[in-house]
Design goal:
- This protein has 21 helices and 20 strands.
- By secondary structure, the chain is of the alpha+beta class.
Length: about 725
C-alpha cells in the first residue's frame, strides 16, 4: 500500500498537470514582471530556467512545463495580487483568471482567441544574454502556444512553424535548438539518431517548396563545437578523414546510426551529412547536419575570409544569419555554389505529377521550361579532363580557340598612355552581381545539341556554340552615337585577354550576336545549337536580385539614393549590421558559384578522362555557363564603348567585372559620364545597388601603379589589387 507521502506526490503531479489553466495570457505575464521591476534573468534564476525560456513564455512561443509551470503560475498569481491590471486594460486569458482579494472591479471576461495580443517582433540585432543554469527537463516544440500573429509562411504551412533550421548548442549539459525569430527549444535527444528522430517528429523544422512542382527543403541542424562534444563526435576530422570528406568507418556514432535503422547518403558522415529514414508515402524523412567545426560553412563563402566570425558567433545570431539566407535565397545545401545550383532546380523543377486521363492515376511528366535529362556533350564545350576527349589529344596538349569554347570573363590590362599618366588617380568601379545580371533575360538551350554543318547561317535565336572567324571585326570602324572610339585602348570583346582573334574560333551565341550588333558580317563554319530554348535562369536571377537588394537595404543602401549618397552608404554599410554584411557576401558567392557549377570540373576526384559524379547531373551544362559568361563580357564591353564615345574615357585594366579608369579625382563621380542635367549618360556605367549597376571598389594613384609595373618588370592586371576597406571586392561578383 502506498504511503501518505507517495499519495501526496501523486496528487501534486496531477495539480501540476492542470496548472496550465492558471497561467494568464503571455502579454499579462510580461506586464506583471515589468510592474514588479523584475528582469527576465531574475525570474529565470528563481525558476532554475534560462532567460531565453522566460522570454519565450512571455511572447507565447512556448509554454512552461512541470515542475516549473506550477512555480511560474504561483509567481504570477502573487504578482497579480500586488499589481492588478485596470479593468479597461484587463488582458485576455484562456479561462477566467483568479481574482485577487485586492481587486474590487468587475471580473474580466475572456476575449475571443483571435484578439489575443500578438508577441512583439524580435529585435534583429539583439543578442540573448548568457543563459543561466538550464532546465534538466525538455519541452516539446509543438507545445501549446498563445494565439498570436504568425508569419505568412508559418501560417500557410504549420509543418515548418519553427523555421527552416536550428543551431544545436550545449551549455552546462543542456542541449538547446536556437531557431529563427529568437525561439529556443529544449532538445531531449541524447544521441545523433535520437536528435534526427526528434527533428523529424517534433521540431517542426523545414521550408516549403519554392515551386508547386518542387519539393520541400529538408530541415537543417547546425552543430556547434559543444554539440559535437555532447554527441560524441570529434572536434575536427583527421587529415585522412578530411581528404575523404567523411568520418572514418567504424566510429561509434556511425554504429549508432546503423543500429537505429537510419541511413546515410553515399557522401557519408561529413561536414554536410544527410541522415534519413525511408520515406512515408510521398513524405521525405531526411535531416541535413551542418557541422560548423568541420568547415561546413567555408569562410571564403559564408564568412569573413581574413577574420572568421562564425566559429565564435552566438548560436542565436548564427540562426538569424542562416535563417535570413534561407528565407531570402533558400535553405543552405552545402557550399554556396551547390546551394545556388539547387536553387535553379527548386525554381524550375524537372518533373511534375500529371493525371492520366485513361486510368485516372498520376504519373511523372517532364516540364518544358526545365533541364530534364543528361544529354550528349559537345567536344568543344567540355573541360580538358572530360571522358569524351580521351584519345583525342596528347596528354598535355593545350587546346586552341578553334578546338575549345573559351568563353571566360575579362582578365586584361594595358600600359597607360602619356596623357593618362597626367591623371593623379586610378578609380576602380565594380559591377554588382555581374554574372546574375547577365543571366537575366538570357535565352539558353534546354535540350541536347544539334550539329549544323556546311556553313550554316547564324541565327541569334539559337543558343549554342559557333565556329566562326571574327578577326575582321575592327572596333575603330564602329560608330557609337555618331562617334568612333580609339580601338587600341579598348579590349577585344571576343577574347578574355582582350586580344584580337587571329582566325576561326568557337564562340557562344551572345558573342557572335554582338559582332552582328557592331555591324559586321559573320560566316559560321559549323555549329552545335539547341532547338528547345527558354529563359531558364530568370526566376533564379529574380530570387537572388531580391535577396541582394533587400539585404543591402537593411544596411541602409537603397535603390533611391543619389550618387554621393550611395557612395557614403556603401562605405558605412558593414558597420551598420555585421550579420547583414555576411549575408551580402553569401548571396554574391551563391550567384557566382552556381554559374561555375554548371561546368564543374573533377577537382582530382578521378583520373583524367574518367567519369566523375557531376557529369550525371541534368544541370551539368557547360553551354549555359558559356552563354552567361559571354553575355557578361559583351555586356560590359557595350558599356565600355558607350563610355568611351560619350566622355573619351578608356579603361586600363579589367579583372572579371572590376574596371580601372584613370581619373582626375578619387571618386567614381569624377570619372563616370553624366549629362548636363546630372543624370548618367544612357548605356554607360551607373552607380547604384541593383545587379548590373556599379559600386566603388577602390582608388589608387597613378604613381602607385607605375611603381607596381616597375617592380614586376611588366604591365600586369592591377584591377583586383585596388581595393578600399573591402577584402571581398574584385572577386567577380
Amino acid at each position: 500500500m502506498s504511503t501518505e507521502n507517495e499519495l501526496f506526490s501523486a496528487v501534486d503531479a496531477l495539480l501540476e498537470q492542470v496548472a496550465k489553466d492558471d497561467l494568464p495570457a503571455p502579454a499579462e505575464r510580461k506586464r506583471l514582471r515589468e510592474a514588479a521591476g523584475l528582469s527576465q534573468a531574475q525570474i529565470a534564476k528563481a525558476l532554475d530556467a534560462r532567460r531565453e525560456a522566460v522570454g519565450n513564455w512571455e511572447t507565447g512561443k512556448t509554454e512552461p512545463r512541470p515542475p516549473k509551470r506550477a512555480a511560474y503560475a504561483r509567481l504570477l498569481e502573487g504578482l497579480a495580487a500586488r499589481f492588478p491590471a485596470p479593468a479597461s486594460d484587463a488582458p485576455a486569458a484562456p479561462t477566467a483568471p483568479t481574482v485577487p482579494e485586492a481587486f474590487t472591479g468587475p471580473v474580466p471576461v475572456p476575449a475571443p482567441a483571435a484578439e489575443a495580443p500578438a508577441p512583439p517582433a524580435p529585435v534583429a540585432a539583439a543578442r540573448p544574454a548568457p543563459a543561466a543554469k538550464p532546465a534538466t527537463s525538455s519541452r516539446r516544440p509543438g507545445a501549446k502556444k498563445a494565439v498570436a500573429k504568425k508569419t505568412t509562411a508559418a501560417a500557410a504551412d504549420p509543418r515548418f512553424e519553427n523555421g527552416p533550421l536550428a543551431v544545436i548548442h550545449c551549455e552546462d549539459g543542456q542541449v538547446s535548438a536556437y531557431c529563427v525569430g529568437g525561439l529556443v527549444l529544449d532538445v531531449p535527444a541524447k544521441s545523433i539518431p535520437a536528435l534526427v528522430d526528434w527533428t523529424l517528429t517534433e521540431a517542426r523544422l523545414g521550408q516549403a517548396r519554392l515551386h508547386r512542382n518542387g519539393r520541400d527543403a529538408d530541415p537543417i541542424l547546425v552543430l556547434t563545437a559543444s554539440a559535437l562534444e555532447r554527441y560524441g563526435l570529434p572536434a575536427a576530422l583527421s587529415q585522412e578523414e578530411q581528404r575523404a570528406g567523411r568520418l572514418a568507418a567504424g566510429h561509434k556514432v556511425l554504429k549508432q546510426i546503423e543500429r537505429a535503422g537510419l541511413q546515410l547518403t553515399q557522401r557519408g558522415f561529413g561536414p554536410w551529412a544527410r541522415v534519413y529514414r525511408d520515406p512515408e508515402g510521398s513524405r521525405r524523412r531526411c535531416v541535413q547536419l551542418c557541422i560548423l567545426p568541420w568547415n561546413a560553412l567555408d569562410a571564403r563563402e559564408w564568412d569573413k575570409r581574413d577574420d572568421p566570425q562564425l566559429p565564435t558567433m552566438h548560436p542565436a545570431d548564427l540562426a538569424r544569419y542562416l535563417g535570413l539566407y534561407a528565407a531570402r535565397v533558400t535553405t543552405p545545401r552545402g557550399s554556396t555554389a551547390t546551394t545556388g545550383l539547387e536553387l535553379m532546380t527548386a525554381l524550375r523543377p524537372p518533373t511534375r505529377a500529371e493525371k492520366d486521363p485513361a486510368t485516372g492515376e498520376f504519373k511523372r511528366a517532364l516540364n518544358d521550361d526545365a533541364l530534364t535529362a543528361v544529354y550528349d556533350v559537345v567536344e568543344c564545350e567540355v573541360p580538358d579532363e572530360h571522358p569524351v576527349l580521351k584519345g583525342k589529344f596528347a596528354r598535355h596538349h593545350l587546346r586552341t580557340p578553334a578546338e575549345m569554347l573559351m568563353e571566360e570573363p575579362y582578365d586584361w590590362c594595358r600600359p597607360l598612355t602619356d596623357e593618362e599618366c597626367a591623371n593623379p588617380y586610378l578609380v576602380v568601379v565594380d559591377l554588382n552581381m555581374s554574372f546574375a545580371a547577365a543571366a537575366n533575360g538570357l535565352t539558353v538551350g534546354l535540350n541536347g545539341p544539334t550539329h549544323l554543318t556546311g556553313n550554316p547561317p547564324f541565327d541569334p535565336a539559337l543558343p549554342g556554340s559557333w565556329l566562326v572567324d571574327l578577326s575582321h571585326v575592327d572596333l575603330s570602324r564602329v560608330q557609337v552615337g555618331g562617334r568612333t572610339v580609339d580601338a587600341d585602348r579598348l579590349p577585344s570583346p571576343f577574347t578574355p585577354k582582350g586580344e584580337r582573334p587571329e582566325g576561326p574560333a568557337w564562340y557562344a551565341t551572345p558573342t557572335v550576336a554582338y559582332a552582328v550588333e557592331l555591324g559586321f558580317d559573320v560566316a559560321p563554319i559549323e555549329a552545335y545549337v539547341r532547338t528547345q530554348t527558354g529563359r531558364y535562369l530568370d526566376p533564379w536571377y529574380k530570387r537572388l536580385r531580391d535577396a541582394y537588394v533587400a539585404t543591402m537595404a537593411d544596411m541602409g543602401v537603397t535603390t533611391d539614393l543619389s550618387g554621393q549618397e550611395f557612395l557614403e552608404a556603401m562605405a558605412r554599410r558593414k558597420q551598420v549590421d555585421p550579420t547583414m554584411a555576411l549575408l551580402e557576401t553569401a548571396i554574391k558567392a551563391t550567384a557566382k558559384g552556381a554559374i561555375g557549377k554548371l561546368r564543374q570540373r573533377s577537382r582530382g576526384q578521378v583520373p583524367y578522362y574518367e567519369p566523375y559524379p557531376a557529369l550525371n547531373r541534368e544541370t551539368w551544362r557547360p553551354d549555359i555557363r558559356a552563354a552567361v559568361l559571354a553575355a557578361q563580357r559583351v555586356g560590359l564591353h557595350r558599356k565600355l564603348m558607350k563610355t568611351a564615345a560619350a566622355a573619351d574615357r578608356y579603361p586600363v585594366a579589367i579583372g572579371t567585372d572590376a574596371i580601372v579608369y584613370p581619373s582626375p579625382g578619387p571618386s567614381p563621380l569624377d570619372v563616370l559620364p553624366y549629362t548636363p542635367e546630372g543624370k548618367p549618360v544612357p548605356g554607360t556605367f551607373r552607380l547604384g545597388v541593383s545587379p548590373g549597376m556599379v559600386k566603388h571598389q577602390g582608388t589608387q594613384t597613378v604613381l602607385w601603379a607605375e611603381s607596381q609595373f616597375e617592380e614586376r618588370g611588366e604591365v600586369f592586371n592591377i584591377a583586383n589589387l585596388i581595393k578600399t576597406a573591402d577584402p571581398t571586392a574584385g572577386e567577380g561578383e
